[in-house]
Automatic annotation (TrEMBL):
Transmembrane segments: 176-199
Similarity remark: Belongs to the peptidase S1C family.
Keywords tagged on the record: Hydrolase, Membrane, Protease, Transmembrane, Transmembrane helix
Span of domain PDZ: 467-536
Regions of compositional bias (Gly residues) in chain numbering: 251-266
Region (Disordered): 1-148, 245-267
Residue stretches of biased makeup (Low complexity): 31-41, 68-80, 100-134
Domain of life: Bacteria
Pro residues bias (residue ranges): 17-30, 42-67
Name used for this protein in its record: Trypsin-like peptidase domain-containing protein
Organism: Streptomyces albipurpureus
Cited InterPro entries: Chloro_Bact_Ser_Proteases, PDZ, PDZ_sf, Peptidase_S1_PA, Peptidase_S1_PA_chymotrypsin, Peptidase_S1C
Length: 552
């Protein structure tokens, strides 16, 4: 279908023949794609001297088909002779029947054929005198039959003009798609408007069923034993301690900028008289002329003073100078009954952040720990509870609670990435250590009673460097004294210098610090059994623990 000239739509326009046309005549009948009633194209006027064109006669099937108009070379006006010869008008050179018309009609039987244009004069002369003139006649072209006939083809003669496609084009569904899209957009807009109107109306509706935050129950209660419940009860009894050293103690040489040095730690209420239990290393800097202040979780601050300190145990007791009424001491548990895997809650002021609560479990029991005190350069020994609750500098002295809220230990030391135990500024790596509350309670009672610690002893000096085979009794004591004190517990039990203690009661001993930690878990006067090796032979002995008063 042509879109350039709609007036020609449905009417086939035959191609104009070349001059002279080859072959002499086109097949009979109207052109393909046109009705038989349409008039044929006008024929060209005859050339003077040409033979009259008669009706086409039968032609053998082998005759070549018509040569396309665009493929035949243009011939001179007088093809029958050489250049400049006049036209021949004899009957021997007259126009014969149109070659190929019968073959075309046979190939297109039953189909309307286009009308043949008038033949040019002397067309047959060129065929009668091949080789007599120049240029020679074009070679014969093969015939192409109908579609499916031998030789293939689409049913039209080779070179026949291409006919415009018949029939109207199918309509595309573009209009329908556009209509659907428009409808969808309109529906979406209408739906959105209705939704907005409904939401706004519901917001203003006094009968709305939406529950606001104001309807939350005021008396929200948490189940007993939850971390929140335990922490809410314990926090009012936990305090943040700030220790400041005097100027002279902080700078004995008299130099410096005149500012006081100190640190921050944690403690908790021990009794209603105002005693606060904490670590020795928290208050050591203010012990000689410094100042101590205690702040409760409600923000109230009180001055305090040191009642007694036990450097070896790393325990100290303070007392509020003006204790408020209604103090609530924390309940003390039984550290001996603690099991690995029990839940733990640590409360303290890590890096000065007061009232911080962290949780974990008991990772191990009876962990021998020797923690260093940077201020005094002396070590403390404990058979500690190990926990993975986060403990950092500032947590020291704070309570380690069980799931009931009872104190089972005093947070004291952490294992740092530097490889040592102590109270340095290293952060938690999940290895925290607490003094068992049973031991801390014994020490606290001693300090409250006399202001001095009392240590159980075996009356022998042990090597603190060796590890792995047991605790070896040294060859001599401090200052060249005897390693085994005469008439002391060890001497009475038959122990001698060089003996290696491998067990203390039922606890294995692998080093001197481990032995000291186990001894300090007992009280003076307790009867214990020791297992030792001498000259490769294992022996056992019973002894009664002695005592030493104060730190030396």
């Amino acid at each position: 279908m042509s879109t350039e000239n709609e007036d020609n739509e449905g009417t086939a326009q035959p191609a104009a023949p070349s001059v002279p046309p080859v072959p002499a005549a086109a097949p009979d009948g109207p052109p393909a794609g046109t009705s038989a009633s349409e008039p044929a194209a006008p024929t060209a006027p005859p050339v003077p001297g040409a033979a009259p064109v008669g009706p086409p006669g039968p032609v053998p099937q082998s005759a070549p088909p018509a040569v396309p108009a665009d493929a035949a070379p243009a011939a001179p006006s007088h093809p029958g002779s050489g250049y400049g010869e006049p036209p021949h008008g004899s009957a021997g050179h007259g126009q014969g029947p149109a070659a190929g018309s019968g073959a075309f009609a046979a190939a297109h039987a039953g189909q309307p054929q286009p009308a043949a244009p008038a033949a040019a004069s002397h067309q047959g002369a060129g065929a009668s005198h091949q080789g007599a003139g120049w240029p020679p006649a074009p070679p014969a072209l093969p015939s192409y039959g109908a579609y499916g006939a031998p030789g293939g083809g689409d049913g039209s003669a080779w070179g026949a003009p291409v006919q415009p496609g018949g029939g109207p084009r199918p309509k595309r569904p573009g209009g329908l798609v556009a209509a659907v899209l428009v409808a969808a957009l309109v529906a979406g807009g209408v739906g959105g408007g209705i939704g907005y109107w409904a939401a706004e109306r519901n917001d203003n509706d006094i009968n709305s069923t939406t529950v606001s935050a104001g309807n939350t129950p005021v008396d929200l209660k948490r189940e007993p034993g939850t971390v929140a419940s335990v922490a809410s009860k314990a926090l009012p009894s936990v305090v943040t301690i700030e220790a400041k050293a005097s100027r002279g103690e902080a700078d004995p040489g008299g130099g410096g900028n005149g500012q006081e040095e100190g640190g921050t730690g944690t403690g908790f209420v021990y009794d209603q008289e105002g005693h606060i239990l904490t670590n020795n290393h928290v208050v050591a800097s203010a012990a000689a002329g410094g100042t101590l202040s205690v702040t409760f979780s409600n923000g109230k601050e009180y001055d305090a003073e040191v009642v007694g300190r036990a450097q070896g145990y790393d325990v100290a007791v303070l007392k509020l100078k003006s204790a408020p009424a209604g103090l609530a001491p924390l309940a003390l548990g039984d550290s001996q009954k603690v099991a690995v895997g029990d839940s733990t809650i640590a409360i303290g002021a890590p890096f000065g952040l007061s009232n911080t609560v962290t949780t974990g479990i008991i990772s191990a029991k009876n962990r021998p720990v020797a923690s260093g005190d940077a201020a005094s350069g002396k070590n403390s020994y404990m058979s500690a509870l190990q926990t993975d609750a986060s403990i950092n500098p500032g947590n020291s002295g704070g309570p380690l609670l069980d799931s009931r809220g009872a104190v089972i230990g005093i947070n004291s030391a952490i294992q740092s990435t530097g490889g040592g135990f102590g109270q340095s500024q290293a952060g938690s790596i999940g290895l925290g250590f607490a003094i068992p509350i049973n031991q801390a309670k014994n020490v606290a009672e001693q300090l409250i009673k006399s202001g001095k610690p009392v240590y159980p002893v075996i009356g022998a000096t042990v090597d603190m460097a060796g590890k792995g085979t047991g605790a070896k009794i040294a060859t001599q004591g401090a200052g060249g004294t005897a390693a085994v004190v005469a008439s002391g517990p060890a001497a009475k039990a038959g122990l001698k210098a060089g003996d290696v203690i491998t067990r203390f009661n039922d606890k294995p001993i692998d080093s001197g610090p481990t032995l000291i930690s186990e001894i300090w878990n007992h009280k003076p006067g307790d009867k214990v059994t020791v297992t030792y090796e001498r000259a490769g032979k294992e022996n056992k002995a019973d002894l009664i623990l002695g005592q030493r008063e104060g730190d030396s």
